[in-house]
Design goal:
By secondary structure, the protein is an alpha+beta fold. The protein has three helices and five strands, in the order H-E-E-H-H-E-E-E.
Length: 92
């Protein structure tokens, strides 16, 4: 018997997995070194990065970003992007 796929659940899981190593805030270690690096993305860039895995729409991204406290910012060129930070592995 075929199992019906819940496409909304798959899209949410893809976004959650993509953001496992990302943060909405810029953080520093006690020594002042960064624990994250900026990796600002547009909504379309996020859709494109996930497209090999699952079909994600603009509404999916907007809902996820709003529900997980991500905000918009401008990059060095003045383009509006989501403020996303990639979490760096701990220093040894």
């Amino acid at each position: 018997m075929e199992q019906k796929i819940n496409k909304d659940q798959v899209r949410r899981e893809a976004l959650q997995t993509y953001f496992l190593d990302k943060s909405s805030t810029c953080k520093e270690r006690k020594d002042g070194e960064p624990t994250v690096v900026p990796c600002f993305r547009t909504t379309q860039e996020l859709i494109d990065e996930l497209s090999p895995m699952v079909s994600i729409g603009e509404e999916d991204v907007l809902e996820f970003m709003a529900n997980h406290d991500y905000h918009m910012t401008t990059d060095e060129g003045g383009s509006v992007k989501w403020e996303i930070y990639k979490i760096l592995p701990p220093q040894e």
